[in-house]
Structure formats: C-alpha cells, structure tokens
Amino acid sequence: MREAQRTAPSIIYVPQIPLWWETVGPTVKAVFTTLLQNIPTFAPVLLLATTDVKHGDLPEEIKALFNNDCEEVFNIQWPTCAERRSFFEDLVMKQAAEPPPSKNNSARQPLEVLPVAPPPKPRQLTEEEIKQLEEQEEDTLRELRIYLRDVTHRLVIDRRFRAFTKPVDPEEVPDYNAVIKQPMDLSTVLSKIDMHQYPTARDFLKDIDLICSNALEYNPAKDPGDRLLRHRACVLRDTAYSIVREEMDEAFEQRCQKIKESRKQRGSDCASSSFCVMPKEDSAPGCKKTDPKCNEILQMPAGPVDASTPWPKGKLCFTQTFLEKVLKLLLL
C-alpha cells in the first residue's frame, strides 16, 4: 500500500480476491482494510480485483470495499462462440500459418518512429476533495502563522529594534513618505500575519528586508545616531534570518511553497477578505464625519488584543491609566 502511494499513479491488483481473502488470516485482513482506508480519496491509486463469483455472493467484508451504487462493480459477460472465433481467427488462420520472419530481414527493417504521447490531463477534483485539500492546507498555514507571530514578538520585545516596532510618525518626519515609497514596520508585519498575507516564511523575510532597506535608504551614515540606526536595522535582518533558518524545517517551508503554487493555479488567494473588516465612519452613534475624536474612537480596537501584539505607547496608554483612576474613585 505504501509503495503504491509513493509511486502513484499506480494499481493494486488482487486476482481472485475471494480465494485470497479465505487464505489470509484476520490480521492481514485488518491491516489491508486499514491501509486501504488511509489512502486519500483524491490519490491516483486504483484497487483492481477480479472474481468469478457474483458481487452479491461475496463476503460482506469484500463487498464493503466496492460500492455498487458508485459504478465500482463491473460485470463482464462470457464471450459467445462467434466472438471467440473472431478473436482467434487472425491468430490461428493467418499468423500461425505463415512462416516466421527471417531474423536478417527483421534486423534490417527500421523501427517505426512513434510520436511522443502527450501527458495526461490532471484529474479535476470534486468539491469534497477540494474542501478536504483546503482544510489540510489551512492547517499547515495556521502552524506557519503561529510560528511567524512568535518570531515577530521576539523581535518586538527586543529593545534594540524599538525604532522598527511601529510606523514612522509623519509629524515627526515630514519627508519620510516622500523618500520611502513602501514603508514597513513590525506592527504592520503582525497585521499582515493576521490577514493571512504570508503563505511562506520567505514572504515574511521579504518584509524584514524591506524594513532594513528603508532604514538604510533614509538614514545615511553621516552622524552617530544614523549609523547606530543602520546598524540595528542590519542586526534586525540577520536576527530574523537566523531564527527562521535555525528553527524552521526546510521540508515545512517547501510544503508551504507548494501550497502557495497550488492555490495560485486554482485561482484561490492565500489571504481571505473576510479577515479585513473596517468600521464605517458613521457607525458610532452620535458621531459626525467632521469630528476628529470620533475617528480616534473608531480606530481603537473593539476587543482584547493578543499578547503577541504590542500596545502602542502614548495617548492610548494615558487614556487607559486615566480611566482606571476614575474607576477607582467611583468605587471608593
């Protein structure tokens, strides 16, 4: 069974299956049935069995292997006398009556050049098979997202990389967006992980490279502060690459890459739009579009944030501290 799966497409041929079933013991039967059930339905493996007994007269265990309603049972009628005569007529009356060809003549005759057969078209998966395949792919990508969150969290809590944990404030650096066309930071990386935008670890490391290249492009090595920031950006990139290369199995990354290519061929995107839900500007009661305070309220998270997502410092932390003090006074 394992060899048939490994060398698929393949055929498992069991001639006279009732005789074989009566010969083997119960252990072989149990192992055979279990291994057969473990083969995925979409795997290109065919179980071909023959018998001279009708399907209804077979043992129940054998009949359970083949579903008659799904056209898995084929009945072949005995050939008639005319069919037998037509089959053997050319062999007996023509080929056997003629003398065998000379070896010298056959060696001189050139072999016929046959055209190369085209590769078979890929079998179209059923809806059930596609659903099962997508569930297996999602389990793999879920493990990848959990791991990437852990890697990003370790980078966020490192004090050396504090400058890269949140977007650059345009009020503090007005010309940043004019110089850097594609800003990137670790908080944005976490958001992209949650939005399923990293089908492979290689895509994750591309954004880490982008953080480093942006820092090197905007901060020329003129003063000690800029040189320190450039140094920490390079350390961030080397640290992320080192963590991924040492901890992630190469076979797992290859499996993620195959999932990415498979979904691209099927026309399905790795990122789901259902994970991107933005509140409307007028969804809050008593809120006007021109009121800047309403926009701040709408931008605040509606629920608790996971521990791997750092809370931004500044106005939000001050508001939380102020509300806690007011609550304590009300309780007293």
From TrEMBL:
Residues 97-125 are annotated as: Disordered. Pfam families: Bromodomain. SMART domains: BROMO. One of its GO terms (molecular function) is ATP binding. The keyword Nucleotide-binding applies. InterPro entries: ATAD2-like, Bromodomain, Bromodomain-like_sf. Coiled coil: none annotated. GO terms for cellular component: nucleus. Residues 164-219 form the Bromo domain. CDD domains: Bromo_AAA. GO terms for biological process: nucleosome assembly; nucleosome disassembly; transcription initiation-coupled chromatin remodeling. Keywords: ATP-binding, Bromodomain, Nucleotide-binding. Belongs to the AAA ATPase family. This is ATAD2 protein. The gene is Atad2_2.
